[in-house]
Every structure is written in C-alpha cells, then in structure tokens.
Please model this.
Amino acid sequence: AFTTDTAGARAQHRFNRLTVELRGAVSDTVFQGDTDPDRDLTEASGAVRASWEFKPTLSGFGEVEAVRLDYRTAAVSDGVAREADGQRTRVGVSFGDTSQVLRGEIALGWAEQDLEDARLVDADGIIVDANLAYRFNELTSFLLTAASDIAGTTTAGTGAVLERRAGLEVRHAFRRHLIGSAGIAVATRDYAGIDIEEHEVTLGLGAEYFLSPEAVLFSRYEHTAFRSEFPDSDYEIDEVRVGMRLRR
Model:
C-alpha cells in the first residue's frame, strides 16, 4: 500500500484568440512498511501551453513540460540512484466541448527522460494523448482515449519505462433510459536499457439504467490479459462490478 499527496496550481490568460496557460504540480508518494523504501518518490512538473483559436470548435496548441523525479534512496535491486530530469513536447488540436458531433482533443509529441547516473540508459520516444468523443448519431457515440508518458522504475538495470495506452469504446442507447457500452483498451510498457516489454489487453462490456437524472444503476464486466517478458509474470483477470451512482 502507498499514499500520494499532490499539490498543483494553474494560471490562464487569454489575449484575443491566443490563450497562454501555466501549470505546475508536486506529488509525494510514500509506500507503507519497510519492503519498498526505494520506491518512495517526489515528482515535480511545470508546463507552459499556448493555444490559438481558429473558431469555437477548433484550436491548435503547443505545450512544453519539464519533469523532475527524486527518490528517497538508491534502488535495492542494483544499488543505483534513479534521479532524473524529463521533458515533454506536444502539439495538437482541440475541438472544444460545445460541438454536438466531435469534442475533445488529440496531441502528438516527444518525451525524454535523462537519468543522472550514467550506468542507466536514458529513455525517449513518441507520445500520443487523446480524449475524443464522436457522436455518430442520436443513439450511438464513440470515445477514443490515449495516454503516453515515461515513468520511473526501480527494476534492476533500468530507470525508465515508456508507457502507452489507447482505448476505444462505443456507447449505444437501446432505450431512453438504457445505455450499453463495449470497448477495448491496449497498453504497452517498454523498459529502457533492458530487452523487456509488457503488453496488456482489456475487453469490457457495460450497461447503465437511468432511474432518474440523479440515480443510475450500472454493471460492468472486464477481462484483462497481461503478458510480460519477465519470468512468471503473465496473468488474466475477470472482473464484474455492479452498483449505483448518485449525483446532485
């Protein structure tokens, strides 16, 4: 088990069609007990983003982000410290949240993670981020999600792992109060400096029944298959969730 404390701030100003945003965050993660002291981590990040509005439903943007990772101690696995500095650069388009057909944004970029200890290999790669909702018709919509980043790791021989995840979900209204969904999500993890990759595929089916605007009954089934080149790490999971969401 672990706890994470996070603090962040964001400032934004608009100059006619140009919008500039500054944001920063610091998070501190502490694992309970004495089994994982080398995983205790402080992560700080700061970013600047500039967007240009071509019209209310279309904007272009560019973003630069800096990331700093500080671990409490060197890794138990190999005795090497994992402190690192990272950079993320993204360019993309945003469709806003007012269109009745296409909403959200998508970005393409490049990520780098430079580790201070020369015994560890630096990591870099293409990153894709997306959160797009497309309304096919009044009954059916599609949701495309994607997220990429370079994370730290205390695995022996490596200090960074490039993580990518993408998902596609379709939602369909069978009745006014009954909505079904089906989706697939794929994730990969590529470790820098060692010949190890991991893959995960999740298939999901769900249903929502709206008792009222404030109360929703829901059910969800997911099957996850995980494959890793680490010995004896493969697994499969079936998960079923049933419940009610209340909102005001």
